[in-house]
Amino acid sequence: MAAPCLVLLALSLLLPLLLLGSWKRWRRERAARHVLVVVLGDVGRSPRMQYHALSLAKHGFSVTLLGFCNSKPHDELLQSDRIQIVQLTELQNLAVGPRVLQYGVKVVFQAVHLLWMLMWREPAAYIFLQNPPGLPSIAVCWFVGCLCGSKLVIDWHNYGYSIMGLVHGPNHPLVLLAKWYEKLFGRLSHVNLCVTSAMREDLAENWGIRAVTVYDKPAAFFKETPLDLQHELFMKLGRTHAAFRACADPGDPATERSAFTERDAQSGMVTCLPGRPALLVSSTSWTEDEDFSILLAALEKFEQLTLAGDSLPSLVCVITGKGPLKAHYGRLIGQKSFQRVQVCTPWLEAEDYPLLLGSADLGVCLHKSSSGLDLPMKVVDMFGCCLPVCAVNFQCLHELVKHEENGLVFEDSEELAAQLQMLFSKFPDPAGKLSQFRKNLRESEQLRWDESWTRTVLPLLMDT
């Protein structure tokens, strides 16, 4: 009688332990194929982190992407059954109290909220974090990783303190505190990625952080846009923006005509209109690191040249994006009295933006890195569409824009105006410099994000 009781007692003690062990093993296996991707910003305006999520999903990981959902991400992200998007709550700026107090309240709220949201997620093998913004997300993600056994991967896009320095000045106490915090907690990560070799060297020399350069590469959907899709895009944009509408109605009411293209009523064939405007595109986050007064001054000089009789086309300039300085520059644009230049500032859906880049004649980039160590991803996307670029110069731009090969580099509005005059002279000239740059881009090896990620990031994860 005693023996069966002992057996039952032993089983009653061992069974919970076996179940607990099985449960923990199941959790470890689940965690090994799960990744948290954290963006303390708008997911829809964080393409590199969207690409990380897509690449992780394509390699068999389940992904939870946490961030603000102010704009729509790419459809591919939304349609993936391996990616779950979790919305973080964004605390709007407080209207009372000193600025330091407002900032402190915002940081404390974000820290508590992010900690709560991460702790409710299932365990993950890795936490991918975009920096900046890193305050307070680096410390919170590191703490969660310590509790849950996750390895922290920081993708350094820039330095947060240097962006704060554009607003407050480099010696402001908040900026110095942010720099100390970034350097301290940045060293606690397991894997560090960065966007340029210059940033990799700076992280090693001045921060004691060993990072791997992962250059931005265009996604597969950034490519030249076929003429029929160009026409559909122009007709769509023409409903809300006059710059895309035809100056004169076609003779046949059944014929569709935009400012750039025409679709024949009988054949359905799309052709470019003779004497069409040139299409110049710039994209921006409307922040302090992009001075659009340079472009506006260059456009004024360009108009003066066209009115003086130079062989130059009329110009449609499209500046797309959202950000804090959009209203300011909108007022400046409204004060201009252009005759041969039209400027519009639409916000495009994620699916329309690649189509616009693939339809344009020239891209202009005014991004001037706050640290001098990051590169504008908008130029990467333009190159993916074989779109030549004029870019304002800064420290490490040569890692992306090769002057006189895939575009031009300028220092000020006078130099940009001269480049626009040269590139658009006798437009569209198949033997001109603009066509040569496009040909060079077509002939160069266009390594795409997926292939680059598989070569660089995936081995790092496997090694850790």
Structure description:
This protein has helices spanning 2-32, 47-58, 75-79, 99-119, 137-148, 160-168, 173-186, 197-207, 227-238, 293-307, 326-334, 352-357, 377-384, 413-423, 433-443, 449-463, and strands at residues 34-42, 62-68, 83-87, 126-131, 151-156, 191-194, 212-213, 256-257, 261-263, 270-272, 278-283, 315-320, 341-344, 362-365, 389-392, 407-410. It has 464 residues and is of the alpha/beta class. It folds into two domains: 91-217 and 450-463, Glycogen Phosphorylase B (Rossmann fold); 227-240 and 275-446, 3-Layer(aba) Sandwich (Rossmann fold). Helix 13 (377-384) links the parallel strand 14 (362-365) and strand 15. The N and C termini lie far apart (54 Å). Keywords: Endoplasmic reticulum, Glycosyltransferase, Membrane, Phosphoprotein, Signal, Signal-anchor, Transferase, Transmembrane, Transmembrane helix. Its EC number is 2.4.1.142. GO terms for molecular function: chitobiosyldiphosphodolichol beta-mannosyltransferase activity.
How much strand?
Answer: 15-25%
- Can you count the beta strands? 16
CATH names the topology of the largest domain as: Rossmann fold
Main β-sheet, spatial strand arrangement: 3-2-1-4-5-6-7
Helix content: 40-55%
In total, how many domains does the architecture comprise?
Answer: 2
Main location: endoplasmic reticulum
Keywords: Endoplasmic reticulum, Glycosyltransferase, Membrane, Phosphoprotein, Signal, Signal-anchor, Transferase, Transmembrane, Transmembrane helix
Signal peptide: 1-21
Domain Glycosyltransferase subfamily 4-like N-terminal: 50-212
